[in-house]
Design brief:
Molybdopterin biosynthesis moea protein, domain 2; Molybdopterin molybdenumtransferase; MoeA_C_domain_IV_sf; elongated; 4 domains; binds magnesium ion; Molybdopterin biosynthesis moeA protein, domain 3; binds ligand LQZAQKY5; binds molybdate ion
Length: about 400
């Protein structure tokens, strides 16, 4: 059995070259940007009125006793207008191009209009209420740098520069595989000795949250059937995420079948709880990476977050965001197992605290909805103090 640190290092040593792909803008949400996005023009692209009101030439303001004949109306979406007569003004709407020969905008609330003549009632500053061309960014400036995660805000930035297609890091082809004779479909009524399969659905959901599509399979505990289906799955995927069949039981065939199919075992069993019987391997020829998680639901879920997500981030070349939060009480983690403890975080004056939730072991899948992550506690002789900083792995 190897330590958690060794297992983690091994997993990160077996990343895949995933390349890039071009997708329609909306499908780039939650993906990793693989190109720099530049301004296609100045931002804003013209001197833009920021208030509804009138546009004047400031020098006229001094000379005309604050009274301006209205010459026209400039709406947003109309080409730039021109102030033709010295001493006049143009009504201007927010988002419109500031008319030629004007340099100052006064909002309606600060003027009164009678018979097409505007009188200014407030102090005016030259250049007010104008969002100047290129004042946010100049054409050609890098607005988004490759390697970032695309969220709604970045979608907006790309939309405004006309990127209807975006280059993103490619997703791996993944199949999630549930194993076990006891498992039935979500819409089935289980017999007393059966359960509905939840692990692979949870994995699919966790992947979908990150905009990663998956296929899913259910395989029974039969060596021949496993062998046949896994051979195809190895050929057709970059990654297999399995759950179940890796412990000491009479029907835990996965390690044996994988090795018979030419998958090289990198390790089996890690000094950790939950998730100890984790089996990890690679098929070098087919370039498939296999995460075979122990079947207990909390084990599958913990190992997905602890190992698979950092592995994926490394494939995409983006850093894993490690977060450290404070322990809310004392805990003693005796050697030799590293512990992943489900917690709920709470924000208090001194920072964010990890409060362990009440749960009933790694088979208690209901507990997963009561926590928002795991803290990772390495084994040590000395107890962990209340307030001590510990690594937090978010699951929500
Ligand atoms: N003699 C030993 N027994 C066990 C050990 C051990 O070290 N020695 N380790 C225990 C630990 S820790 C875990 S975790 C489990 C891992 O078991 P397997 O990976 O072999 O998984 P299964 O036996 O197939 O199932 C275990 C458990 O999980 C349920 N399960 C499986 N798949 C799903 C699914 N898709 N959705 C919901 N629940 C699932 C399954 O019904 C079992 O209850 O082994 C311990 N035993
Ligand atoms: O890994 Mo097991 O999850 O300790 O039950
Ligand atoms: Mg088992």
């Amino acid at each position: 059995m190897i330590s958690f640190d060794q297992a983690y290092t091994h997993v990160l040593e077996h990343t895949l070259e995933l390349g890039v792909e071009v997708v329609p803008l909306m499908q780039s949400l939650q993906r990793v940007l693989a190109e720099d996005i530049c301004a296609d023009r100045d931002f804003p692209p013209f001197d833009r009125a920021t208030k509804d009101g009138i546009a004047i030439n400031y020098s006229d303001h001094i000379n005309t006793d604050h009274i301006f004949q209205i010459e026209g109306v400039a709406a947003a979406g109309a080409p730039q207008q021109e102030l033709r007569t010295v001493g006049n003004c143009v009504e201007v709407m927010t988002g419109a191009v500031v008319p030629k020969n004007t340099d100052t905008v006064i909002m309606y609330e600060h003027i009164s209009i009678t018979d097409n003549v505007a009188v200014i009632n407030e102090k005016v500053t030259k250049g007010q209420n104008i969002h100047y061309k290129g004042s946010d960014e100049k054409a050609g400036a890098v607005l988004l740098t490759k390697g970032i995660k695309i969220t709604a805000a970045e979608i907006g930035v790309m939309a405004t520069v006309g990127k209807s297609y975006v280059t993103v890091k490619a997703n791996p082809k993944i199949t999630t595989i549930a194993t076990g004779n006891e498992l039935v479909e979500v819409d089935a009524v289980p017999l007393p000795h059966q359960i509905r399969k939840s692990n692979t659905i949870t994995l699919e959901a966790a992947l979908q949250t990150r905009a990663i599509p998956t296929n899913t399979l259910h395989l029974i505990d039969n060596k021949e059937a496993l062998s046949k289906s896994l051979q195809t799955a190895l050929e057709q995927n970059d990654v297999l995420l399995l759950s179940g069949g890796v412990s000491k039981g009479k029907f835990d065939f996965i390690p044996e079948v994988m090795e018979s199919l030419g998958v090289e075992k990198v390790f089996h069993r890690v000094a950790q709880r939950p998730g100890k019987p984790f089996w990890f391997g690679v098929h070098k020829e087919l370039k498939t990476v296999i995460f075979s998680f122990p079947g207990n639901p909390v084990s599958t879920f913990a190992n997905f977050h602890v190992y698979f997500l950092p592995w994926l981030h490394k494939c995409w070349n983006i850093p894993v965001a490690n977060q450290y939060i404070k322990l809310s009480g004392e805990i003693h983690i005796k050697p030799p197992l590293t512990r992943f403890i489900q917690v709920c975080t709470k924000r208090e004056k001194g920072g964010i605290y990890a409060v362990p939730i009440s749960e009933n072991g790694s088979g208690d899948l209901l507990s997963l909805s009561k926590s928002n992550g795991f803290i990772c506690l390495q084994p040590r002789e000395k107890g962990y103090r209340s307030g001590e900083l510990v690594a937090f792995i978010s699951t929500k």
